[in-house]
């Protein structure tokens, strides 16, 4: 081999070695960059996992310390989770016994409950569901429930969660008010004096037969409920000796928001 060819090969080998060194240096830098990037990703994932744990813990704390009962049930109604308020309210504890939500529903409200659960599955939530439940000690309680569906990563419903508020006291107060109104209505209907009660829109709330007889109204008192009384005074003023005084007196009462009118004045 000639000297010239040997020099050409040596130069080529030298260039190859230099190229390899450059490639190795580049690869070394890339490997180092990838290592640091991998470490940063691990740290970021660790921070994210820690953050998720903190958020989960915070959420758990919210449900554990909420003032209302909180339940999680599976699609078949089995109770999977309940907070301390729910344990005290229902009297059951899933750590000691198996509970199905169906067993807590008041018998007369079960069909309504089933229909509402179908709505929950279809729409993903419901609000202000009101029904009765039976506690472990056989007490009947009124509850208001706001619930949402829990889905898996394929959007398939797997459970439901709900916040249950005890509204028994409100219901009892409402029933007492209705009973009081019924007693008052019964008293008014049977009075020997003519009575007419209007609302703020001048519509009849209640009247009695004596009133209809006095004003020669040929219908049952219950048929007058909801009728507009705006022009009633003007239409019936002819029945009074002082017809203009009658209309004026009613206008004064309405203007001053007073509730007593004596036809003798």
Task: Estimate the global geometry from the Cα principal axes.
Answer: elongated
Structural class: alpha+beta
Order of helices and strands: HEEHHEEEHEEHHH
Estimate nothing, just give the exact number of structural domains.
Answer: 3
> What is the level 1 CATH name of the largest domain?
Alpha Beta
What is the alpha-carbon Rg in Å? 40 Å
CATH-scheme architecture of the largest domain: 2-Layer Sandwich
> Which regions are unreliable across 5 or more consecutive residues at pLDDT < 50?
54-62, 261-265
Number of strand elements: 7
Number of helices: 7
> What is the mean pLDDT?
78
Quick structural gist:
The chain is α+β, with helices and mostly antiparallel strands and 265 residues long. It has 7 helices and 7 strands; from the N terminus they run αββααβββαββααα. The chain has a 5-stranded antiparallel sheet with strand order 2-1-5-4-3, with helices on both faces. Strands 6-7 form a two-stranded antiparallel sheet.
Tell me what you see in this structure:
The structure is a single chain. With 265 residues, the protein is an alpha+beta fold. The protein folds into 3 domains: 1-65; 67-166, 2-Layer Sandwich (Beta-Lactamase); 172-256, Beta-Lactamase (2-Layer Sandwich). It contains 7 helices and 7 strands. A 5-stranded antiparallel beta sheet has the order 2-1-5-4-3, with helices on both faces. It has a two-stranded antiparallel ribbon with strand order 6-7. It starts with a helix and ends in a 9-residue tail after the last helix. The model is unreliable at 54-62 and 261-265 (pLDDT under 50).
């Amino acid at each position: 081999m000639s000297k010239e060819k040997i020099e050409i090969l040596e130069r080529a080998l030298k260039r190859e070695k230099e190229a390899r060194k450059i490639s190795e240096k580049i690869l070394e830098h890339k490997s180092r960059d990838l290592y640091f990037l991998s470490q940063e990703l691990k740290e970021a994932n660790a921070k994210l996992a820690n953050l998720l744990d903190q958020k989960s813990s915070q959420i758990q704390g919210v449900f554990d310390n909420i003032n209302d009962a909180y339940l999680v049930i599976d699609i078949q109604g089995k109770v999977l989770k309940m907070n301390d308020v729910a344990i005290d309210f229902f009297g059951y504890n899933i750590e000691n016994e198996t509970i199905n939500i169906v067993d807590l529903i008041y018998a007369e409200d079960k069909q309504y409950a089933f229909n509402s659960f179908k709505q929950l599955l279809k729409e993903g939530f419901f609000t202000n569901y009101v029904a009765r439940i039976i506690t472990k000690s056989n007490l009947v309680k009124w509850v208001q429930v706001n619930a949402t569906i829990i889905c898996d990563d394929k959007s398939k419903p797997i459970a439901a969660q709900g916040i249950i508020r005890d509204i028994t006291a409100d219901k009892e107060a409402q029933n007492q008010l209705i009973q009081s109104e019924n007693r008052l209505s019964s008293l008014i209907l049977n009075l020997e004096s003519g009575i007419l009660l209007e609302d703020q829109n001048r519509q009849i709330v209640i009247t009695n037969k004596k009133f209809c007889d006095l004003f020669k109204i040929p219908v049952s008192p219950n048929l007058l409920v909801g009728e507009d009384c705006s022009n009633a005074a003007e239409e019936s003023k002819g029945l009074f000796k002082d017809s203009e005084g009658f209309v004026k007196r009613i206008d004064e009462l309405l203007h001053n928001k007073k509730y007593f009118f004596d036809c003798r004045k």
